[in-house]
Amino acid sequence: MTTDDGKTGTSDGDSASSDDAGSGLSVEPVQDALAVETVDVEARGGPDNLFWATLRVQYWWALDGGRFTAKTTGYWARPNNRYSGDIYFRISSGSNSDWHRLTTQAYQNGYWNALEQELVVTGNANSASIDFHFVYDMPLGPDFDLWGNEIVRFTLSQPIISLPANNGNVSPIFYISGRGVSGATVQTCQSNVGNEIAPQVPVVNGQWSTTVNPAIALGGFNFTSRQLVNGKYSDWASPVQVTVALAAPVISSPTNGSIINELRPVFTGTGENGAQVQIRRGDGTQISNDVNVVNNRWSAALNQDLNWGLNTLIVRQKMGDVFSSDRPVTVTVLPRLLSITAPLANTDQNGQFTVSGTDGINGATVNIYSETNSANPIGTHVLTATGSWSVAVTVAPGPVSLVATQTINGAVSDRSTPRGFRIRPPKLTDPTVTYPNQAQARFSGSGYQGATVDVVIETGPAGAAQPPAVSVANGGNWETTSTNFPPGSYTLKLIQRIPNNAGGWIESEPLEHRVVRQPSAPGEVTDTTDGE
Known about the structure:
Radius of gyration: 55 Å
CATH topology of the largest domain: Immunoglobulin-like
CATH class of the largest domain: Mainly Beta
CATH architecture of the largest domain: Sandwich
Strand content: over 45%
Largest sheet: 6 strands, mixed
Shape: rod-shaped
Structural class: mainly beta
Distance between the termini: 133 Å
Helix content: under 10%
């Protein structure tokens, strides 16, 4: 701080070693005050103003200029070897202290002499007057009145910007905070431009904070602040240089390259607090609402269906009209996995039966495959509704494990959980029965190649011999002979069976066949077929 006539700092006058008060004494103001300044107030008077005295005063202002304090530290006067001078001291700014007599025994010896007195008045946040009256003691004749005055100005301190740090990185809408004079109003502007970048805010308990609005464009940016008290502005604070950046949001789910089954999945991830995240197709079409990032987390549901198959999407965040770079993500949408619910697993089925299940999609094509052959479906059906489905299949005899898929718009689901069945060989047709001689009966027919045919006598005359089991030959024919098949009525059960690859058999549905063998005339050879 400076006085109106520039008299600040330390006087250049002589000093006395024992009574020096000019430079050794310092005053520490209270913490809510500006730094201490020093001024020498010179008083002159007498004939041709040749008589003089100087009063050294330390002073300081409250931070907001609402209080002014001055403290004398010493004086010196023109020497005449007298010691009965009178010193009066007064200050005024927002209020007046009135005159205070400090001593009536002032030394007039040409040396600095210690003298302390502190006065406090209300400040006007503009200027203060420091008045000095010295009554110079004369040996003969009247004393001389010496008068002096200095005007000191209040300079409002600059606010301090604490955050963001100089040369730091910030988002387009960033938080600014710092310290200032309580009760002041802080204004923040772009450096060297002057446009405000954030709302003006009050200083409360020495602290202030504000948030940039609207968003700042990406790149380098300088800003500064000043504070206003009682209509008086401080100087601008030292500019702060920042780099404005907005990174692309991070996608937590679904992850890049993932396979999903929902046409409208919910995307989640992390981003910049205060930003809004949006999801777009590769062609730029926005397919989500703008969602807010809260606690660095965001979640966005789509408002349009994705395409079946591969989708390339763009996720970005924005602050105001400032956008981050794009975060690409690809997801493949496949129909959900089908579930086979019927028939029950590991049950016997005919070669033609119906496979049923759930989780079908309207418009999809359901294909049933053998687990070991996914090239050729053994049953197919186009669904006309979402949910349950049924497909007729034709399967070769033997143990089999079936899987189901559904396809829509070229997108194929994964295969369902396999379900095993035992496929029966076909039910046998009525056999041909002949009688090579009076004792024997020959049974023959067609069957499943490689199957074993059993002809079981359920009812008939006592002593009838069970024909042995026989394999169906390569041509699909079989033949077996009972060695003792006496005349009478018979009920036969015929089945063919194949291995189940687990030490057991898969049997066809049984065929019931009735035979009546007539007695032969004496000496007659019978070779006829009976049955019904």
